[in-house]
Each structure stands twice: as C-alpha cells, then as structure tokens.
Design a protein that fits this description.
By secondary structure, the chain is an alpha/beta fold. The protein is built from 11 helices and 10 strands. It has helices at 17-32, 44-52, 69-72, 112-115, 130-141, 156-168, 182-187, 211-214, 219-227, 231-243, 249-259; strands at residues 8-14, 36-42, 58-64, 79-81, 89-94, 121-123, 150-152, 175-179, 190-191, 204-210.
C-alpha cells in the first residue's frame, strides 16, 4: 500500500521521446509513494536552466559527463545525482543496406566512391544536444566539409521523418544517433566506428534531484529511484511502445513495469 504524501513534485525531462520514457517510470515511482507529480519538458539547455532556477525538482535524466556535464556544472553543488538508470552513448549510423565493406568507419565517408553515393546533408536534433555538438565537430575534424558534407540541427519530428524517408527510398545517408533510441530497433541502423573519439564517452544517465526537493520527497521513493536500472534496452523498449506502438508515456511505463515484474516499492 502506498505511503501518502501531500507534496507535489515537478519532474522535468528533455523534450525527446526516450527521455519521456525514462521520466514516465520516474513519475510512477513517485506516485507509488503518494506524491502528486507535475510533468514539464524543455530543450536541453532550457531544462537544466529551469532546474537551476528551482523550477524542476527531479530532472530525468542528465547524461554525465560528456553530453550534459557542462549544463549541470553550473549548479552541481545544489543537487544530488542518483545512480544511473541506463548508460547512453552517441554514434553515427547508416541504414543496414549500406554495405559494411564499403562504409565501416566514419573516415570511409570521405572515400570518393562513397561520397558520390552518400547524401551529404546530415540532419540532427536540437543544437543543445551533445550529439549535435559532437557532430558539428566531426564534420570538420574528419575533413568531411571539404567534400560538401554539412551538419544542421533540427527538430525531433524532422529528424525522425528524415530517417523514415531515407529508409523508404533506400538512400545512402548517415544519421547522428544514440542509444537508447527506438529507431535503432525499428530499422536496425548500423553504427560506424569512430576512431577519433569525438562522440564523447559512454555516459551515466542519472536522475538529478535538487537538495531542497530531496527533503520533500519520500525517502523510500528516493531509495527506489537510486536502485532502479532500466538499461539502454529497457528505455528503448518503452520508447518503442510510445513512438511506434502508439501508447502514451505513462501507458508504456505501466506495460514495461508489468512485463518485467518490477516492484515499485523497495
């Protein structure tokens, strides 16, 4: 039986489908201990700024250290970072029909016979994402700009539509991607080797709780969030249910928790 609490907790997530997936599970944990939850979302920089300004109690999730460390560092002394729920990483990927013997490595994109077939306009998600910052650097550092390759950030909807359109046309294209993300499962996109190490490290995706809010959250709820582990596979499963299965984030979280027999109480 849930232990009730009168406190309303604001949970914030970055406005991307897989972040909604992780945030929905976090919301269910808090609700199971009696909390009312107010959900908000924003782009990367705006969400961290909002937490710094006390507008978000629990941020789900910060990718540390590579992707979001620069945003959290501005107020890291005022928060508690929990144990990671999954361990994300960034990649550049191509569709599975692009032969691995021709495009195995990011450097292969500069081979004349590959550059001739590959779409050179590379699209991404919003500019504040780690993968967008990394990708802009990669175009320069691998000398791809000299062959006409460009990188431009965009919206999540535009990013997904670009992948779907390219797959349908069996187009040769490269896409800045990451795990967890449902497109990995849906289209079996193949990551390229990236020897320069410009895509950051494998990060820890952790909930971040303001210290003031920590005093208002049921301690057992905090303990449960600190032991919760979904892994990349789990987050992708929920993301798939939302983005390809038509479920709401909370419905997808409920299915995941039931299917994996996960108890919400410690």
């Amino acid at each position: 039986m849930a232990i009730t609490s009168p406190e309303t907790i604001t949970v914030g997530n970055i406005a991307l489908s897989f972040h909604r997936a992780a945030a929905a599970v976090t919301r269910r944990v808090l609700e199971s201990y009696g909390h009312r939850v107010n959900s908000v979302e924003a782009t990367h920089e705006k969400l961290f700024r909002r937490q710094a300004e006390n507008g978000v109690d629990v941020l789900v999730s910060a990718w540390l250290p590579s992707s979001h460390g620069m945003y959290l560092s501005r107020y890291s002394d005022r928060v508690k970072v929990l144990t990671p729920h999954y361990r994300p990483y960034c990649v550049w990927a191509v569709p599975p029909y692009v032969p691995v013997e021709e495009v195995r490595n990011v450097s292969d994109l500069s081979r004349p016979e590959v550059a001739e077939r590959m779409t050179t306009a590379i699209g991404g998600i919003n500019a504040g994402a780690g993968i967008s910052r990394f990708s802009a650097t990669m175009v320069r550092e691998y000398g791809l700009d000299r062959l006409g390759y460009t990188f431009a950030p965009g919206t999540e909807d535009g990013f997904i539509a670009r992948v779907e359109r390219g797959i349908a046309a069996r187009e040769w294209f490269v896409i800045p991607l990451w795990r967890p993300q449902y497109l990995n499962r849906l289209h079996a996109l193949r990551p390229l080797e990236e020897p320069k190490g410009l895509l950051g490290t494998v990060d820890n995706a952790s909930p971040v709780i303001r210290l003031e809010a920590l005093e208002r959250i049921h301690p057992e709820a905090v303990a449960r969030l600190d032991t919760l582990h979904m892994g990349n596979e789990g987050v992708e499963e929920i993301d798939m249910s939302i983005s390809a299965g038509g479920l709401s984030p909370l419905q997808a979280a409920d299915h995941y928790l039931t299917d994996h027999h996960l108890r919400l109480f410690v």
